[in-house]
Design a protein that fits this description.
Structural class: mainly alpha
CATH class: Mainly Alpha
Number of strands: 0
Number of helices: 5
Strand content: under 5%
CATH superfamily: Ferritin, core subunit, four-helix bundle
Radius of gyration: 17 Å
CATH architecture: Up-down Bundle
Shape: elongated
Order of helices and strands: HHHHH
CATH topology: Ferritin
Distance between the termini: 35 Å
Helix content: over 70%
C-alpha cells in the first residue's frame, strides 16, 4: 500500500497547511476526479482483459491494469492525507464494443488522462503531491504507447 505523509502534516495538520496555501479545494476535486476515472478504467480494463484474443494482448492489458490499480491507491491515500477522511466517489462503467474498439478507446482515454494528470501536477508546488501526479502522468503516456502498438498490430 502506498502511504504519503507530508512534513506539514506533522506541524499543525495538513488542512491548515492547505488552507493557508488556498489549494485544498482544487486539489481535492482533482483527486476525486482521478479516483472516479481510475475506478472506471480499472473496471473497463478488467472486462477488456477477459475478451483479449491473444496472450500478448492479455498481458498488455494486465500490465496497464496493475498500474491503474496503483494509481487509484495512490490518489486515495493522498486524498486521505490531505482531507483527513476517506473519499467518496462515483464508480462509473463504460461500454466495450469489442476488443479492437476497446483498445482504440483505451488509447484515447490514456491520452486524455495524461492531460488531466499534467494539469493536476501544475496545481501545486508541493513536490510530494506533484510526485503522485507525475508518476500517474508518465504511466498514462506509457499506456497510450502500449495501446497504440497493440491497436496497430490487431
Amino acid at each position: 500500500m502506498y502511504y504519503y505523509m507530508h512534513p506539514a502534516y506533522y506541524h499543525g495538520g495538513y488542512e491548515a497547511y492547505m488552507r493557508t496555501n488556498g489549494q485544498q479545494t482544487e486539489l481535492l476535486e482533482a483527486l476525486i476526479k482521478a479516483m472516479e476515472g481510475e475506478s472506471e478504467t480499472i473496471d473497463f480494463y478488467e472486462r477488456l482483459r477477459k475478451i483479449s484474443p491473444t496472450k500478448t494482448s492479455r498481458e498488455t492489458v494486465e500490465h496497464v491494469l496493475e498500474d491503474e490499480r496503483l494509481h487509484l491507491e495512490m490518489v486515495v491515500d493522498l486524498y486521505r492525507t490531505l482531507a483527513g477522511k476517506s473519499p467518496k466517489y462515483r464508480r462509473r462503467k463504460k461500454q466495450i464494443a469489442g476488443f479492437r474498439e476497446g483498445v482504440r478507446q483505451a488509447f484515447d482515454d490514456e491520452i486524455e488522462t495524461y492531460k488531466f494528470y499534467r494539469d493536476s501536477y501544475l496545481l501545486t508546488q508541493d513536490t510530494a503531491i506533484r510526485d503522485v501526479f507525475f508518476h500517474a502522468m508518465t504511466d498514462e503516456m506509457e499506456h497510450a504507447t502500449r495501446f497504440g502498438f497493440l491497436y496497430r498490430d490487431l
